[in-house]
Amino acid sequence: MTPPETVHQLIQAHHLLDRGQTVVVGVSGGADSLCLLHLLRDLAADGEITIIAAHLHHGIRGPEADSDAAHVEALCEQWGVPHLNGHADVPALAQERGLSTEEAARQARYAFLAETARAQGADSVAVAHNADDQVETILMHLLRGSGLDGLCGMRPDAWIEEPTRPPGQPRIRLIRPLLSTPRGEIEAYNQAHGIQARFDRSNLDTSYHRNRLRQELIPYLEGYNPNLRRTLLRMGAALSADRDLLDALLDQTWPQVTIQATSDVVRLDLMALRAQPLGIQRAILRRAVETLSHSLRNLGFVHIDDALAVMREGHVGTRATLPAGLMLTLGYDDLTLARQDYELPPIGPSLDAPIMVAWPGVTLLSDGHWQLSLEAISAADLPPDWQRNTDPLLAFLDADRLREPLILRTRRRGDTFWPLGLGHEKALRSFMIDQKIPSPQRHRLPLLTSRDAIAWVVGWRIDQRFAVTASTERIVVARCRPVDRSTMKEQP
Fold first, then answer.
1. Which terminus of the chain has a smaller tally of CB atoms within 10 A, N or C?
2. From CA 267, how far away is CA 338, in angstroms rounded?
3. pTM for the full model?
């Protein structure tokens, strides 16, 4: 097929354009972007869409870049296409953000295109990535050890990634009408229509990773498989269908595991998340990251793997750092993802002041959000699997060793206790450090005390001296639970 046919087919298949739509077209002056602009100009001439060309001077190549801008401006005037020029100091941006020149240029380019689209009342930006670019992208991801998303390559449509997008500003859609068109067909189209493109000499610089792939690795691999490009494109298309299936499953599962999802924080139901297959767990975490950062760039396998390890094996308060300044925090019954400067509410039960405990009965903690219930049972009524208890907010204590007054309080200087299973006395401060209890949580963590001796560090460990033994006849079942505001009773 010719480029017009290929582009029309892709537009129809992925609903890239709607009649009456305004589209900003990113135009560098190279062969690909001029071909795209010429093709979309024909649609605009038919009245189907309105196009605006946008060119960014990156502040890198001096007079050559000046000539590129002048060439784009002259062609737009010749073709009757409205055009806008922008300028960025990419070297300064790279230094300021600690980025490579390639990444700084990419961020500057997309920020400019998105800002231009908003200013012109457009909701979409068209860029000229082609089939050869797709091959390079898939191969680059393969070499880096990507998952399914990376091996699919670029999508025909996506959202523009804007690390510095102002709060409240709408996201801009990114479309790639040339994504199925090989570079050779683009060059033939330009030649047939007399389109003179600018040549960027930086494309010859093999210090850039993508250039090295294009000029060295792909020709080398084609010695093993002459149809390498077609093979990789076919693989990407096949995996895209699998990704679509996973996305559909994710759409069904997301509401079941999500407690809260805003632009500031995502909270996931820990039990529901743990019940999902590994592939869905990974997909949920990726969507949570994307919800907050609007990008999956720089999110690697190791980040997701670390987050899953926290979910499976971490203690309450354990954290994992993720890209884009995000932090994952494990709670008692949730997994919270937020920016590192986001102030999370206290994790689990907390105390503002000491309080006398009702025994038996229910005691509302001084924070007003949690309550402690104490229930007396006989040894014969113990659940068969009580020794395998995995609920950190449920404890079994020897009733005959507890002495009133029972008081909930927070830690004091010099506190010690005998952690169950340790076999000797330990300073409470050292225990909290060893258990990696977050520092802000330590001074508000409830301690169930019997005549001021610590019987239970709530949510963490009981004291060996108050543990149920073979000779225990009466047991206190202690449960700490969130308050059900509708009934002010303990949640099951």
1. C
2. 9
3. 0.73
